[in-house]
């Protein structure tokens, strides 16, 4: 199912039935590349995706994914990728409350997902949020509204057969006492947590950090091939993908 | 007849396109002269005002990125970076928007350093010729011998005066003891804004957006870069201090605006007044993240450990380097550099060098200071 260069170890570690995937990163080890990999995988094989982009403009994703062999402009034109440019969110609707703006955003996402469903294709559909911390900033710190939005999205994915939600969150923001209200619920609803962390010895040229993948939804049909719950491995980000390998197995 | 007319028309067109090409070439050369350097991957850089920092960051500050500098809580060393950056922009005649928590932000411009070799003097020299200038220069500035050697090398070696000039002018060395000439400051398109006792950030945001709207992003067109410099954005003397969410959303919107324009924003912030989680938020929002630390005057242990400790004024740590169109992070060979004043006037950055511990471990003196374990390893080798 997974193409070469798409990260063998990562796809092995990810159980196929994961509905909600949470990607955690920190300043020292950004995990945007995991999103790029997942987006490429979501669009491969006829799948569709909705990308809620708060962090970067479209041309950034376009150029990065193009190097990985995935033409986002084409997918966008053909209607398989729905790109929501939320860099200026909530922007013009400044008059209304943030809850209204989020509700409108949710309705837009729902329309896209419904349209995909009524087309009758059984292909996968992925809703991706890059990243949820910025959505919280856009909501001026109202974590409850963001959680409501997330909850709606989760319900949306559970309604559909092959729909999943991928959320990027900067974990180190919430490491202190005062800001845990978003991270803990997100971890709770996650079926799969992918966490990027720097090496304790600092960054090296050939190891950019380590990923730990935790499978939480361990129902029997979701069990990955090797039945493992926690995976730890190193990664190196490249222009056309990423290398994943066990510590010490590289050379 | 018609064909002939078309032929002449074509000829005329050809000629005009030829002349336009020539003019566009001069335009592009003048645009590079105004301080924009094109890099690989479609990147365009402006200089940070410190040639060493440009080299470390792979060309300079990336156009369309937000650079954040974490201030030292005890010493105003971040001002060194900010002043050099602003002075470089002024020398390049780039539009500049400065905001700082002070009553008279325009007074801050008076503290900008002057370039050691200002571009104007350079041009005058070129007009007069190398022979005449050597006399004139030697008489009025006898001390800058090293700099002059470099200049002569350049002039003897190459006849491509244009190329050399562009390269030299992209980043200047600045003399911290000499203020920038007044006429440069007055002639410029410089806006100043005070953030002291201002209750909200909407004014600053509006000023930034009008400023940036004049600098639309054009790929391949004439490049006119702008600078936004904000000093101590979250300082306690600002009226909006404590409105953490407002500040973060300001940075977020500034980032998206800068991203779509030909400008660089440099923000310094005293991170110690922010709570831990907000400090992380700010760091995540930065494209390029630097932190600066002053060193105490008499730290005997450090003085023993590092060579050239006397000249150091602080450490610069590079946390993040901005990237265009790529997901691969930039891994530097060393991320901590010592900030030194060369001849007490111009800033240089150097890799940390460990002083030799004793005679037997001489070879380890070249190893970088960030990994002290390597020294022990080499000791074991002997």
Outline of this structure?
The complex is a heterodimer of chains A (251) and B (382). Chain A is α/β, with parallel strands linked by helices. Chain A has helices spanning 8-13, 32-43, 58-67, 72-77, 98-118, 132-138, 143-159, 183-189; strands spanning 20-25, 48-53, 81-85, 125-130, 163-170, 192-197, 209-215, 230-238, 241-245.
How would you describe the overall organization of this protein?
- The complex is a heterodimer of chains A (251) and B (382).
- With 251 residues, chain A is α/β, with parallel strands linked by helices.
- Helix content of chain A is 34%, strand content 23%.
- Chain A has a 9-stranded mixed β-sheet with strand order 3-2-4-5-1-6-7-8-9, sandwiched between helices.
- In chain A, helix 5 (98-118) runs parallel beside helix 7.
- The model of chain A is unreliable at 1-7 (pLDDT under 50).
- Chain B folds into 2 domains: 36-116 and 172-351, 3-Layer(aba) Sandwich (Rossmann fold); 353-382, no CATH class.
- In chain B, a hairpin with a 5-residue loop joins strand 1 (36-38) and strand 2 (44-46).
- The longest helix of chain B is centred in the N-terminal third of the chain and has 32 residues, at 2-33.
- In chain B, 35% of the residues are buried.
- Mean pLDDT of chain B is 74; it is low at 1-31, 118-144, 153-168 and 359-382.
- Chains A and B meet through helix 2, helix 3 and helix 6 of A and helix 11 and helix 12 of B.
* Mean pLDDT across residues of chain A: 85
Query: So what's the overall shape of chain A?
Result: globular
Compressed to H and E, one letter per element, the order of chain A equals HEHEHHEHEHHEHEEEE
Mean pLDDT of chain B: 74
Oligomer: heterodimer
Structural class of chain B: alpha/beta
Give the helix level of chain B as a range of percent. 40-55%
Our measurement of the CA-to-CA distance between the termini of chain B, rounded to an integer number of angstroms, reads 92 Å
CATH fold-level topology of chain A: Rossmann fold
Q: How much beta of chain B, percentage-wise?
A: 15-25%
Largest sheet of chain A, in brief, is:
9 strands, mixed
CATH class of chain A: Alpha Beta
């Amino acid at each position: 199912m997974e193409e070469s260069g798409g990260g063998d170890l990562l796809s092995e570690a990810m159980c196929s039935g994961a509905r909600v995937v949470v990607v955690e990163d920190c300043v020292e080890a950004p995990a945007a590349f995991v999103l790029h990999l997942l987006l490429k995988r979501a669009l491969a094989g006829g799948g569709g995706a909705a990308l809620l982009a708060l962090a970067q403009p479209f041309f950034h994703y376009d150029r990065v994914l193009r190097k990985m062999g995935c033409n986002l402009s084409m997918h966008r034109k053909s209607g398989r990728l729905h790109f929501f440019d939320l860099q200026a969110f909530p922007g013009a609707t400044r008059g209304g409350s943030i809850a209204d703006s989020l509700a409108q955003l949710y309705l837009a996402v729902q329309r896209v997902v419904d349209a995909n469903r009524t087309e009758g294709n059984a292909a996968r559909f992925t809703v991706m949020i890059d990243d949820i911390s910025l959505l919280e900033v856009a909501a001026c710190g109202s974590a409850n509204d963001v959680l409501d939005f997330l909850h709606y999205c989760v319900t949306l994915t559970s309604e559909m057969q092959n729909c999943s939600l991928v959320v990027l969150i900067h974990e180190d923001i919430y490491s202190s006492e005062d800001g845990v209200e978003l991270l803990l619920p997100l971890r709770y609803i996650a079926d799969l947590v992918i966490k990027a962390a720097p090496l304790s010895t600092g960054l090296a040229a050939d190891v950019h950090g380590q990923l730990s993948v935790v499978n939480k939804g361990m129902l029997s049909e979701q069990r990955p091939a090797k039945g493992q719950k926690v995976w730890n491995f190193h990664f190196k980000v490249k222009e056309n993908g990423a290398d994943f390998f066990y510590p010490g197995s590289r050379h | 007849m018609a064909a002939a007319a078309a032929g002449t028309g074509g000829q005329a067109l050809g000629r005009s396109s030829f002349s336009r090409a020539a003019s566009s070439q001069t335009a592009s050369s003048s645009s590079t002269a105004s301080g924009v350097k094109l890099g690989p991957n479609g990147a365009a850089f402006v200089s940070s005002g410190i040639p060493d920092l440009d080299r470390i960051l792979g060309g300079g500050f990336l156009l369309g990125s937000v650079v954040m500098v974490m201030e030292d809580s005890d010493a105003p060393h971040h001002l060194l970076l900010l002043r050099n950056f602003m002075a470089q922009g002024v020398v390049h005649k780039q539009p500049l928007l400065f905001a700082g928590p002070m009553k008279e932000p325009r007074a801050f411009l008076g503290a900008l350093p002057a370039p050691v070799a200002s571009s104007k003097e350079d041009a005058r020299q070129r007009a007069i010729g190398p022979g005449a200038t050597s006399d004139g220069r030697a008489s009025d500035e006898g001390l800058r011998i090293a700099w002059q050697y470099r200049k002569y090398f350049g002039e003897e070696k190459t006849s491509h005066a244009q190329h050399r000039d562009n390269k030299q002018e992209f980043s200047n060395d600045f003399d911290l003891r000499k203020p920038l000439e007044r006429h440069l400051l007055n002639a410029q398109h410089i806006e100043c804004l005070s953030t002291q006792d201002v209750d909200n950030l909407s004014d600053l945001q509006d000023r930034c957006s009008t400023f940036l709207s004049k600098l639309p992003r054009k790929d391949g067109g004439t490049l006119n870069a702008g600078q936004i410099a904000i000093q101590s954005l979250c300082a306690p003397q600002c009226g909006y201090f404590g409105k953490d969410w407002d500040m973060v959303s300001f940075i977020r919107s500034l980032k998206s605006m800068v991203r779509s324009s030909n400008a660089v924003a440099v923000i310094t912030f005293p991170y110690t007044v922010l709570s831990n989680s907000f400090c992380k938020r700010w760091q995540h929002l930065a494209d390029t993240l630097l932190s600066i630390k002053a060193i105490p005057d008499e730290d005997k242990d450090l003085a023993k450990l590092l060579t050239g400790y006397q000249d150091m004024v602080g450490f610069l740590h590079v946390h993040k380097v901005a990237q265009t169109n790529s997901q691969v992070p930039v891994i530097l060979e060393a991320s901590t550099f010592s900030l030194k004043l060369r001849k007490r006037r111009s800033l240089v950055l150097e890799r940390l060098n460990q002083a030799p511990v004793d005679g037997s471990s001489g070879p380890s003196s070249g190893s970088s200071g960030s990994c002290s374990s390597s020294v022990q390893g080499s000791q074991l080798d002997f």
